[in-house]
Amino acid sequence: MVEVLVLGAVAVAAASLNAAFAGHRPAEPFHEAARLLTMQRRVTASADRLLTGVGVISLPVAAALAALVVPVGGHVAVDAPVGLVWFNAMEVVAWASVWLAGWGVNSAFALVGGYRFIAQGLAYELPHMFALITAALAAHSLDLRVIGEAQDGLWFAVWMPVAFAVYLISALAMAFWGPFGHPLGGDLAGGAALELSGPDRLVFLAGRYGLLTVSAAVAVPLFLGGGSGPLLPGWAWSLVKTAAVLALLVWTRHRLPVLRMDRFMTVAWTVLIPATLLQMLVVGLVVV
Amino acid sequence: MEAVAFWVLALAAVGSGVAVFVVGSMARATFALLASFLCVGAELLLIGLHYLGVLVILMMIMEMLVMVVFMVAYMMNPAGLMPMTMLHNERGAFAISGTAFAALAVGIFAVPWPARAGNPPRDPTFALGESIMGSKMLVMMVIGIAILATMIATVVLAAHRGRYDRDGAS
Fold first, then answer.
1. Interface test with B, best of A51, A82, A279 (most B CBs within 10 A)
2. What is the pTM for the complete model shown?
3. How distant is the Cα of B83 from the closest Cα of chain A, in angstroms?
4. Dihedral over Cα of A32, A70, A61, A163: its sign
5. Residue B90 has what pLDDT?
6. Contact criterion met (CB below 8 Å) for A216 and A58
7. How confident is the model at residue B162 (pLDDT cuts 50, 70, 90)?
8. Which residue of B has its CA nearest to A117?
9. Which residue of A has its CA nearest to B124?
Protein backbone atom coordinates (compact mmCIF):
# COMPACT_ATOMS: atom_id res chain seq x y z
CA MET A 1 0.00 0.00 0.00
CA VAL A 2 3.02 2.29 0.51
CA GLU A 3 3.48 2.36 -3.27
CA VAL A 4 -0.02 3.80 -3.78
CA LEU A 5 0.55 6.47 -1.12
CA VAL A 6 3.89 7.43 -2.67
CA LEU A 7 2.26 7.83 -6.08
CA GLY A 8 -0.43 9.95 -4.40
CA ALA A 9 2.27 12.23 -3.02
CA VAL A 10 3.84 12.43 -6.49
CA ALA A 11 0.42 13.49 -7.85
CA VAL A 12 0.29 16.35 -5.33
CA ALA A 13 3.79 17.37 -6.42
CA ALA A 14 2.55 17.36 -10.04
CA ALA A 15 -0.14 19.88 -9.07
CA SER A 16 2.53 22.11 -7.52
CA LEU A 17 4.69 21.77 -10.62
CA ASN A 18 1.73 22.73 -12.79
CA ALA A 19 1.21 25.85 -10.69
CA ALA A 20 4.92 26.69 -11.03
CA PHE A 21 4.77 26.31 -14.82
CA ALA A 22 1.75 28.62 -14.87
CA GLY A 23 3.73 31.26 -12.98
CA HIS A 24 1.97 30.82 -9.62
CA ARG A 25 3.50 29.88 -6.28
CA PRO A 26 4.01 26.11 -5.85
CA ALA A 27 1.76 26.22 -2.76
CA GLU A 28 -1.16 27.50 -4.84
CA PRO A 29 -2.84 24.06 -5.22
CA PHE A 30 -3.06 23.76 -1.42
CA HIS A 31 -4.78 27.13 -1.19
CA GLU A 32 -7.13 26.10 -3.98
CA ALA A 33 -7.88 22.81 -2.19
CA ALA A 34 -8.69 24.64 1.04
CA ARG A 35 -10.90 27.07 -0.87
CA LEU A 36 -12.82 24.27 -2.59
CA LEU A 37 -13.23 22.33 0.66
CA THR A 38 -14.86 25.27 2.41
CA MET A 39 -16.92 26.35 -0.58
CA GLN A 40 -20.64 25.68 -0.73
CA ARG A 41 -21.86 23.36 -3.50
CA ARG A 42 -23.56 25.00 -6.45
CA VAL A 43 -26.68 23.03 -7.37
CA THR A 44 -28.20 22.88 -10.85
CA ALA A 45 -31.88 22.27 -11.59
CA SER A 46 -32.97 18.63 -12.10
CA ALA A 47 -29.41 17.36 -11.72
CA ASP A 48 -28.88 13.61 -11.44
CA ARG A 49 -26.99 13.76 -8.15
CA LEU A 50 -26.37 10.02 -7.99
CA LEU A 51 -24.73 9.75 -11.41
CA THR A 52 -22.71 12.96 -10.86
CA GLY A 53 -21.45 11.56 -7.57
CA VAL A 54 -20.46 8.26 -9.16
CA GLY A 55 -18.61 10.13 -11.92
CA VAL A 56 -16.73 12.39 -9.51
CA ILE A 57 -15.69 9.69 -7.05
CA SER A 58 -14.85 7.01 -9.61
CA LEU A 59 -12.00 9.08 -11.11
CA PRO A 60 -9.65 9.10 -8.08
CA VAL A 61 -10.78 5.60 -7.08
CA ALA A 62 -9.85 4.26 -10.52
CA ALA A 63 -6.46 6.00 -10.34
CA ALA A 64 -5.79 4.46 -6.91
CA LEU A 65 -6.91 0.99 -8.07
CA ALA A 66 -4.62 1.29 -11.10
CA ALA A 67 -1.75 2.29 -8.80
CA LEU A 68 -2.16 -1.04 -6.94
CA VAL A 69 -0.35 -2.93 -9.71
CA VAL A 70 2.34 -0.32 -10.50
CA PRO A 71 5.78 -1.51 -9.37
CA VAL A 72 8.05 0.92 -7.53
CA GLY A 73 11.45 -0.71 -7.84
CA GLY A 74 10.80 -4.40 -7.13
CA HIS A 75 7.82 -3.72 -4.86
CA VAL A 76 4.18 -3.72 -5.85
CA ALA A 77 1.07 -3.31 -3.68
CA VAL A 78 -0.80 -6.25 -5.21
CA ASP A 79 0.93 -9.08 -7.04
CA ALA A 80 -0.95 -9.15 -10.36
CA PRO A 81 -0.03 -11.56 -13.18
CA VAL A 82 -2.23 -9.52 -15.55
CA GLY A 83 -1.32 -6.10 -14.14
CA LEU A 84 -1.07 -4.48 -17.56
CA VAL A 85 -4.68 -5.37 -18.44
CA TRP A 86 -5.82 -4.22 -15.00
CA PHE A 87 -4.16 -0.83 -15.54
CA ASN A 88 -5.90 -0.59 -18.92
CA ALA A 89 -9.29 -1.45 -17.38
CA MET A 90 -8.95 1.12 -14.60
CA GLU A 91 -7.80 3.82 -16.97
CA VAL A 92 -10.92 3.30 -19.13
CA VAL A 93 -13.04 4.10 -16.04
CA ALA A 94 -12.16 7.75 -16.82
CA TRP A 95 -14.52 7.51 -19.82
CA ALA A 96 -17.38 6.79 -17.44
CA SER A 97 -16.23 9.39 -14.90
CA VAL A 98 -16.08 12.29 -17.36
CA TRP A 99 -19.29 11.35 -19.17
CA LEU A 100 -21.19 10.90 -15.90
CA ALA A 101 -19.89 14.18 -14.46
CA GLY A 102 -20.85 15.95 -17.70
CA TRP A 103 -24.25 14.29 -17.99
CA GLY A 104 -25.34 14.28 -14.36
CA VAL A 105 -25.23 18.01 -13.71
CA ASN A 106 -27.83 18.76 -16.42
CA SER A 107 -25.96 21.58 -18.09
CA ALA A 108 -25.46 21.95 -21.84
CA PHE A 109 -21.75 22.81 -21.91
CA ALA A 110 -20.89 20.12 -19.38
CA LEU A 111 -22.83 17.60 -21.47
CA VAL A 112 -20.87 18.53 -24.60
CA GLY A 113 -17.64 18.11 -22.63
CA GLY A 114 -18.69 14.63 -21.53
CA TYR A 115 -19.44 13.55 -25.09
CA ARG A 116 -16.15 15.04 -26.28
CA PHE A 117 -14.29 12.70 -23.98
CA ILE A 118 -16.05 9.60 -25.35
CA ALA A 119 -14.99 10.64 -28.87
CA GLN A 120 -11.46 11.27 -27.63
CA GLY A 121 -11.46 7.89 -25.90
CA LEU A 122 -12.41 6.09 -29.10
CA ALA A 123 -9.55 7.90 -30.84
CA TYR A 124 -6.75 7.20 -28.36
CA GLU A 125 -7.72 3.80 -27.01
CA LEU A 126 -6.82 1.56 -29.97
CA PRO A 127 -3.29 2.94 -30.56
CA HIS A 128 -2.85 2.93 -26.77
CA MET A 129 -3.77 -0.74 -26.48
CA PHE A 130 -1.42 -1.66 -29.33
CA ALA A 131 1.41 0.21 -27.60
CA LEU A 132 0.74 -1.71 -24.37
CA ILE A 133 0.57 -5.05 -26.21
CA THR A 134 3.87 -4.33 -28.00
CA ALA A 135 5.75 -4.02 -24.72
CA ALA A 136 3.99 -7.11 -23.33
CA LEU A 137 4.84 -9.03 -26.50
CA ALA A 138 8.55 -8.28 -26.18
CA ALA A 139 8.58 -9.33 -22.50
CA HIS A 140 6.29 -12.39 -22.95
CA SER A 141 4.27 -11.25 -19.95
CA LEU A 142 1.36 -9.09 -18.79
CA ASP A 143 2.99 -8.60 -15.38
CA LEU A 144 4.42 -5.07 -15.13
CA ARG A 145 7.30 -6.24 -12.94
CA VAL A 146 8.33 -8.93 -15.43
CA ILE A 147 8.09 -6.40 -18.28
CA GLY A 148 10.37 -4.02 -16.35
CA GLU A 149 12.90 -6.74 -15.63
CA ALA A 150 12.91 -7.93 -19.26
CA GLN A 151 14.73 -4.76 -20.35
CA ASP A 152 18.21 -5.47 -19.01
CA GLY A 153 20.58 -3.20 -20.88
CA LEU A 154 18.29 -1.96 -23.65
CA TRP A 155 15.15 -0.02 -22.73
CA PHE A 156 12.03 -0.71 -24.75
CA ALA A 157 11.78 3.06 -25.35
CA VAL A 158 14.99 2.82 -27.39
CA TRP A 159 14.09 0.01 -29.75
CA MET A 160 10.32 0.58 -29.91
CA PRO A 161 10.17 4.39 -30.08
CA VAL A 162 6.82 4.48 -31.93
CA ALA A 163 5.07 2.52 -29.17
CA PHE A 164 6.66 4.77 -26.52
CA ALA A 165 5.61 7.96 -28.31
CA VAL A 166 2.06 6.66 -28.77
CA TYR A 167 1.97 5.70 -25.09
CA LEU A 168 2.95 9.23 -24.03
CA ILE A 169 0.29 10.74 -26.32
CA SER A 170 -2.38 8.43 -24.96
CA ALA A 171 -1.26 9.11 -21.37
CA LEU A 172 -2.11 12.78 -22.00
CA ALA A 173 -5.37 11.83 -23.73
CA MET A 174 -6.61 9.49 -20.98
CA ALA A 175 -6.07 12.17 -18.33
CA PHE A 176 -7.62 14.81 -20.66
CA TRP A 177 -4.58 16.92 -19.98
CA GLY A 178 -2.81 19.64 -21.97
CA PRO A 179 -3.29 19.25 -25.73
CA PHE A 180 -6.09 16.76 -24.99
CA GLY A 181 -7.89 18.97 -22.49
CA HIS A 182 -10.73 19.73 -24.92
CA PRO A 183 -13.38 17.87 -22.80
CA LEU A 184 -12.69 20.47 -20.08
CA GLY A 185 -11.91 23.15 -22.66
CA GLY A 186 -12.07 26.90 -22.15
CA ASP A 187 -14.31 27.15 -25.23
CA LEU A 188 -16.94 25.27 -23.18
CA ALA A 189 -16.36 27.44 -20.10
CA GLY A 190 -14.81 24.42 -18.37
CA GLY A 191 -16.60 21.58 -20.16
CA ALA A 192 -17.43 18.44 -18.20
CA ALA A 193 -16.22 19.99 -14.93
CA LEU A 194 -18.14 23.23 -15.50
CA GLU A 195 -20.82 22.75 -12.83
CA LEU A 196 -18.66 20.84 -10.35
CA SER A 197 -18.02 23.01 -7.33
CA GLY A 198 -16.65 22.71 -3.83
CA PRO A 199 -15.43 19.29 -2.67
CA ASP A 200 -16.81 17.64 -5.86
CA ARG A 201 -14.50 19.71 -8.01
CA LEU A 202 -11.54 19.04 -5.72
CA VAL A 203 -12.07 15.27 -5.85
CA PHE A 204 -12.56 15.25 -9.63
CA LEU A 205 -9.47 17.35 -10.42
CA ALA A 206 -7.37 15.42 -7.87
CA GLY A 207 -8.47 12.24 -9.65
CA ARG A 208 -7.19 13.68 -12.91
CA TYR A 209 -3.75 14.32 -11.36
CA GLY A 210 -3.87 10.78 -9.99
CA LEU A 211 -4.58 9.33 -13.42
CA LEU A 212 -1.82 11.41 -15.01
CA THR A 213 0.62 10.24 -12.33
CA VAL A 214 -0.29 6.57 -12.68
CA SER A 215 0.05 6.71 -16.46
CA ALA A 216 3.50 8.32 -16.05
CA ALA A 217 4.44 5.66 -13.48
CA VAL A 218 3.38 2.80 -15.78
CA ALA A 219 5.59 4.19 -18.58
CA VAL A 220 8.61 3.34 -16.38
CA PRO A 221 8.23 -0.48 -16.24
CA LEU A 222 6.77 -0.54 -19.76
CA PHE A 223 9.42 1.40 -21.66
CA LEU A 224 12.09 2.84 -19.35
CA GLY A 225 13.64 -0.24 -17.79
CA GLY A 226 11.68 -0.23 -14.51
CA GLY A 227 13.86 0.25 -11.45
CA SER A 228 17.18 -0.48 -13.18
CA GLY A 229 19.97 2.09 -12.96
CA PRO A 230 23.40 2.64 -11.40
CA LEU A 231 24.16 3.54 -7.75
CA LEU A 232 20.63 4.29 -6.48
CA PRO A 233 18.27 1.51 -5.31
CA GLY A 234 15.44 0.32 -7.57
CA TRP A 235 12.62 2.24 -5.90
CA ALA A 236 14.57 5.50 -6.19
CA TRP A 237 15.18 4.98 -9.91
CA SER A 238 11.49 4.18 -10.44
CA LEU A 239 10.50 7.42 -8.74
CA VAL A 240 13.12 9.51 -10.58
CA LYS A 241 11.94 8.17 -13.95
CA THR A 242 8.27 8.61 -12.98
CA ALA A 243 8.95 12.21 -11.95
CA ALA A 244 10.76 12.90 -15.24
CA VAL A 245 7.91 11.50 -17.40
CA LEU A 246 5.31 13.27 -15.27
CA ALA A 247 7.14 16.60 -15.51
CA LEU A 248 7.18 16.22 -19.31
CA LEU A 249 3.44 15.49 -19.37
CA VAL A 250 2.63 18.43 -17.07
CA TRP A 251 4.85 20.74 -19.13
CA THR A 252 2.88 20.05 -22.36
CA ARG A 253 -0.13 21.85 -20.91
CA HIS A 254 1.76 25.14 -20.99
CA ARG A 255 3.54 24.73 -24.32
CA LEU A 256 1.14 22.96 -26.70
CA PRO A 257 -2.22 24.09 -28.13
CA VAL A 258 -5.40 22.16 -27.38
CA LEU A 259 -6.40 19.66 -30.10
CA ARG A 260 -9.90 19.19 -31.42
CA MET A 261 -10.61 15.50 -31.01
CA ASP A 262 -12.18 15.02 -34.44
CA ARG A 263 -8.83 16.01 -35.93
CA PHE A 264 -7.01 13.81 -33.45
CA MET A 265 -9.38 10.99 -34.42
CA THR A 266 -8.28 11.21 -38.06
CA VAL A 267 -4.61 11.15 -37.10
CA ALA A 268 -5.13 8.39 -34.54
CA TRP A 269 -6.94 6.05 -36.91
CA THR A 270 -5.05 6.72 -40.12
CA VAL A 271 -1.52 7.30 -38.78
CA LEU A 272 -1.14 6.03 -35.22
CA ILE A 273 -2.94 2.67 -35.59
CA PRO A 274 -0.97 1.60 -38.70
CA ALA A 275 2.25 2.90 -37.10
CA THR A 276 1.69 0.92 -33.90
CA LEU A 277 0.75 -2.19 -35.91
CA LEU A 278 4.00 -1.92 -37.90
CA GLN A 279 5.88 -1.40 -34.65
CA MET A 280 4.28 -4.53 -33.25
CA LEU A 281 5.18 -6.46 -36.39
CA VAL A 282 8.84 -5.39 -36.10
CA VAL A 283 8.94 -6.28 -32.40
CA GLY A 284 7.21 -9.59 -33.12
CA LEU A 285 9.81 -10.47 -35.77
CA VAL A 286 12.70 -9.52 -33.46
CA VAL A 287 11.30 -11.45 -30.48
CA VAL A 288 10.36 -14.60 -32.41
CA MET B 1 -14.51 -15.23 3.09
CA GLU B 2 -14.61 -16.15 -0.59
CA ALA B 3 -18.07 -17.59 -0.18
CA VAL B 4 -19.27 -14.33 1.37
CA ALA B 5 -17.71 -12.32 -1.47
CA PHE B 6 -19.33 -14.65 -4.00
CA TRP B 7 -22.81 -14.18 -2.56
CA VAL B 8 -22.44 -10.43 -2.13
CA LEU B 9 -21.30 -10.05 -5.75
CA ALA B 10 -23.98 -12.45 -7.00
CA LEU B 11 -26.76 -10.58 -5.24
CA ALA B 12 -25.35 -7.23 -6.39
CA ALA B 13 -25.20 -8.51 -9.99
CA VAL B 14 -28.84 -9.64 -9.91
CA GLY B 15 -29.93 -6.56 -7.99
CA SER B 16 -28.37 -4.11 -10.44
CA GLY B 17 -29.77 -6.23 -13.27
CA VAL B 18 -33.25 -5.68 -11.83
CA ALA B 19 -32.47 -1.99 -11.42
CA VAL B 20 -31.99 -1.71 -15.19
CA PHE B 21 -35.73 -2.22 -15.61
CA VAL B 22 -36.82 -0.18 -12.63
CA VAL B 23 -34.97 3.13 -13.00
CA GLY B 24 -36.54 5.97 -14.94
CA SER B 25 -33.59 7.21 -16.99
CA MET B 26 -31.64 5.67 -19.85
CA ALA B 27 -28.33 6.81 -18.37
CA ARG B 28 -29.12 5.17 -15.04
CA ALA B 29 -30.30 1.98 -16.76
CA THR B 30 -27.04 1.74 -18.72
CA PHE B 31 -24.87 2.20 -15.66
CA ALA B 32 -26.96 -0.23 -13.64
CA LEU B 33 -26.26 -2.77 -16.38
CA LEU B 34 -22.57 -1.87 -16.22
CA ALA B 35 -22.59 -2.44 -12.45
CA SER B 36 -24.11 -5.87 -13.03
CA PHE B 37 -21.38 -6.77 -15.54
CA LEU B 38 -18.66 -5.50 -13.20
CA CYS B 39 -19.95 -7.83 -10.48
CA VAL B 40 -19.76 -10.74 -12.95
CA GLY B 41 -16.18 -9.74 -13.83
CA ALA B 42 -15.30 -9.70 -10.13
CA GLU B 43 -16.81 -13.20 -9.78
CA LEU B 44 -14.42 -14.40 -12.48
CA LEU B 45 -11.51 -12.84 -10.55
CA LEU B 46 -12.77 -14.69 -7.49
CA ILE B 47 -12.47 -18.10 -9.14
CA GLY B 48 -8.91 -17.35 -10.27
CA LEU B 49 -9.55 -16.47 -13.92
CA HIS B 50 -7.66 -13.17 -13.67
CA TYR B 51 -7.28 -12.43 -17.34
CA LEU B 52 -10.91 -13.17 -18.24
CA GLY B 53 -12.18 -11.25 -15.22
CA VAL B 54 -10.16 -8.12 -15.94
CA LEU B 55 -11.03 -8.39 -19.63
CA VAL B 56 -14.76 -8.48 -18.82
CA ILE B 57 -14.35 -5.37 -16.66
CA LEU B 58 -12.33 -3.57 -19.37
CA MET B 59 -14.58 -4.46 -22.30
CA MET B 60 -17.85 -3.85 -20.45
CA ILE B 61 -16.85 -0.34 -19.36
CA MET B 62 -15.95 0.61 -22.94
CA GLU B 63 -18.99 -1.13 -24.36
CA MET B 64 -21.47 0.48 -21.97
CA LEU B 65 -19.96 3.93 -22.59
CA VAL B 66 -20.47 3.50 -26.34
CA MET B 67 -23.93 2.05 -25.68
CA VAL B 68 -25.05 4.93 -23.51
CA VAL B 69 -24.37 7.34 -26.39
CA PHE B 70 -26.64 5.38 -28.72
CA MET B 71 -29.30 4.52 -26.14
CA VAL B 72 -29.66 8.15 -25.14
CA ALA B 73 -29.69 9.18 -28.82
CA TYR B 74 -32.42 6.69 -29.77
CA MET B 75 -34.75 7.15 -26.81
CA MET B 76 -37.91 9.14 -27.33
CA ASN B 77 -37.04 10.95 -24.13
CA PRO B 78 -33.44 11.85 -24.90
CA ALA B 79 -32.57 13.75 -21.78
CA GLY B 80 -33.80 11.00 -19.47
CA LEU B 81 -35.21 13.72 -17.27
CA MET B 82 -38.83 12.68 -17.60
CA PRO B 83 -40.00 9.29 -16.30
CA MET B 84 -39.76 6.46 -18.81
CA THR B 85 -40.19 2.74 -18.58
CA MET B 86 -38.01 -0.10 -19.83
CA LEU B 87 -40.94 -2.54 -19.83
CA HIS B 88 -42.79 -3.38 -23.03
CA ASN B 89 -45.21 -6.24 -23.85
CA GLU B 90 -45.25 -7.11 -20.18
CA ARG B 91 -47.40 -10.25 -20.32
CA GLY B 92 -45.54 -11.89 -23.24
CA ALA B 93 -42.15 -10.97 -21.79
CA PHE B 94 -43.13 -12.38 -18.41
CA ALA B 95 -44.23 -15.68 -19.95
CA ILE B 96 -41.03 -16.03 -22.02
CA SER B 97 -38.66 -15.10 -19.20
CA GLY B 98 -40.54 -17.26 -16.68
CA THR B 99 -40.33 -20.29 -19.00
CA ALA B 100 -36.64 -19.68 -19.71
CA PHE B 101 -35.86 -19.35 -16.01
CA ALA B 102 -37.80 -22.52 -15.14
CA ALA B 103 -36.06 -24.50 -17.93
CA LEU B 104 -32.60 -23.37 -16.80
CA ALA B 105 -33.37 -24.02 -13.12
CA VAL B 106 -34.66 -27.53 -13.92
CA GLY B 107 -31.53 -28.10 -16.02
CA ILE B 108 -29.29 -27.30 -13.05
CA PHE B 109 -30.87 -30.08 -10.98
CA ALA B 110 -31.59 -32.56 -13.79
CA VAL B 111 -28.18 -32.63 -15.48
CA PRO B 112 -25.68 -35.11 -13.99
CA TRP B 113 -22.68 -32.88 -13.35
CA PRO B 114 -19.33 -34.44 -14.30
CA ALA B 115 -16.67 -34.93 -11.64
CA ARG B 116 -13.64 -32.65 -11.84
CA ALA B 117 -10.85 -33.99 -14.06
CA GLY B 118 -7.32 -32.61 -13.75
CA ASN B 119 -6.06 -29.50 -11.98
CA PRO B 120 -6.15 -25.82 -12.92
CA PRO B 121 -3.10 -24.91 -15.06
CA ARG B 122 -0.28 -22.87 -13.55
CA ASP B 123 -0.89 -20.01 -15.98
CA PRO B 124 -4.62 -19.89 -16.90
CA THR B 125 -4.10 -16.98 -19.33
CA PHE B 126 -1.58 -18.96 -21.38
CA ALA B 127 -3.74 -22.11 -21.27
CA LEU B 128 -6.76 -20.10 -22.43
CA GLY B 129 -4.87 -18.70 -25.43
CA GLU B 130 -3.57 -22.17 -26.31
CA SER B 131 -7.02 -23.76 -26.13
CA ILE B 132 -8.73 -21.01 -28.14
CA MET B 133 -6.08 -20.50 -30.81
CA GLY B 134 -3.64 -23.39 -30.57
CA SER B 135 -2.32 -24.32 -33.99
CA LYS B 136 -4.46 -21.64 -35.68
CA MET B 137 -2.56 -18.75 -34.07
CA LEU B 138 -1.35 -17.26 -37.38
CA VAL B 139 -4.82 -17.41 -38.96
CA MET B 140 -6.38 -15.81 -35.87
CA MET B 141 -3.82 -12.98 -35.88
CA VAL B 142 -4.38 -12.26 -39.58
CA ILE B 143 -8.16 -12.33 -39.15
CA GLY B 144 -7.87 -9.99 -36.17
CA ILE B 145 -5.95 -7.42 -38.20
CA ALA B 146 -8.31 -7.87 -41.17
CA ILE B 147 -11.37 -7.23 -38.98
CA LEU B 148 -9.76 -4.11 -37.53
CA ALA B 149 -8.82 -2.83 -40.99
CA THR B 150 -12.37 -3.50 -42.21
CA MET B 151 -13.87 -1.60 -39.30
CA ILE B 152 -11.66 1.42 -39.83
CA ALA B 153 -12.18 1.39 -43.60
CA THR B 154 -15.96 1.16 -43.12
CA VAL B 155 -15.98 4.15 -40.80
CA VAL B 156 -13.71 6.15 -43.10
CA LEU B 157 -15.92 5.40 -46.12
CA ALA B 158 -19.15 6.07 -44.22
CA ALA B 159 -18.00 9.34 -42.65
CA HIS B 160 -19.57 12.20 -44.51
CA ARG B 161 -17.40 15.22 -44.94
CA GLY B 162 -19.39 18.37 -44.33
CA ARG B 163 -18.82 21.94 -45.41
CA TYR B 164 -17.19 22.79 -42.09
CA ASP B 165 -14.32 20.42 -42.78
CA ARG B 166 -11.39 22.27 -44.23
CA ASP B 167 -8.77 20.68 -46.48
CA GLY B 168 -9.92 17.20 -45.53
CA ALA B 169 -7.94 17.44 -42.30
CA SER B 170 -10.81 16.93 -39.93
1. A82
2. 0.89
3. 12
4. positive
5. 86
6. no
7. low
8. B65
9. A81
Run of H or E residues at B101 = helix B90-110
- Counting the structural domains of chain A, the total is 1
Helix (H) or strand (E) holding A273: helix A273-287
Q: Which of residues 85-114 of B touch A (CB under 8 A)?
A: none
Residue A196's domain comprises 2-287
> Based on C-alpha coordinates, what's the Rg of chain A?
19
Longest dimension (CA), chain B: 67
Rounded CA separation A239/A99 (Å): 32
Q: Which of A117-121, A182-186, B71-75 has the highest mean pLDDT?
A: A117-121
B75 touches chain A (CB under 8 A): no
Interface predicted TM-score of the whole assembly (ipTM), two decimals: 0.90
Residue A37, C-beta contacts closer than 8 angstroms, at least 6 positions apart:
A198, A199, A202
8-state DSSP, A270? I
Q: What is the pLDDT of residues A145-200, one digit of tens each?
A: 999 888 887 888 888 999 999 999 999 999 999 899 999 988 888 889 999 988 99
Tell me which of A94-108, B44-58, B76-90 is least confident: B76-90
Give the Cα separation of B97 and A177 in Å (integer): 47
Question: pLDDT band at residue A102, thresholds of 50, 70 and 90?
Answer: very high
Using CB atoms, which residue from B51, B61, B66 is nearest to A93? B61
Contact A85 B61 (CB under 8 A): no
Torsions phi, psi for A75 (to 5 deg): -100, 145
- Give mean pLDDT, residues B148-168: 71
Residue A267 contacts B where some CB pair is shorter than 8 Å: no
Exposed e or buried b for every residue in A1-11, given b needs 16+ CB within 10 A?
Answer: eebbebbbebb
A132: closest CA among A174, A89, A163, A157? A163
Tell me how far CA of residue A170 lies from CA of A73, A264, B20, B74, B165, in angstroms: 24, 11, 33, 30, 25
B29 HSE (CA, 13 A, CB side): 22
Closest residue to B27, CB basis, from A46, A48, A95: A48
- Check residue B170 and give its pLDDT: 45
Q: Kindly report, residue by residue over A66-87, the tens digit of the pLDDT.
A: 999 999 887 888 888 899 999 9
Are residues B31 and A95, on separate chains, in Cβ contact within 8 Å? no
Residue A280, SS3? Answer: helix
pLDDT grade, residue B81 (50/70/90)? low
Cα–Cα distance measured from residue B58 to residue B64, given in angstroms and rounded to the nearest whole number: 10
* Mean pLDDT for all residues in chain A: 91
Q: Which member of A85, A106, A277 has the closest CB to residue B54?
A: A85
